Amino acid sequence: MTTFVRRIAPLCVVLGLSGCASAPATDRSVPATVRLAVDNRTDYTWQIVVAPTGGGAPQTARVPPRGTFELALAGGDYAITQTMLMAGGASPSTRRLTAHFESGESYRWPLATLLSAGSQAAAREIVRP
Fold it and tell me: What is the CATH number of the domain that holds 104?
């Protein structure tokens, strides 16, 4: 019986340790996302449309006065339309821009007008990681 144990023991050790040398499995099918927090520092409602420049469905967010809204996006290039919705039927104010967001990053985007409280600080912070 001791001969059997001596012959089988090395095989058990080799088989037992082989699992330790393998790399852990990772799920590469789930892309890293971008977190974009839109912070409305005005007394107006804003509508934000974020569309991938390479095609795909746009995401639309309606941000209430002094409110925040978060979007989860895939990393890449985007065309953004921001519209300040005016009360009383006045024509809305619209601005179009492009932005590149890196996967796995978080961004804060303060919306402000010249008359908003803290607007000078917000003007220096537009879309940065």
Answer: 2.60.40.10
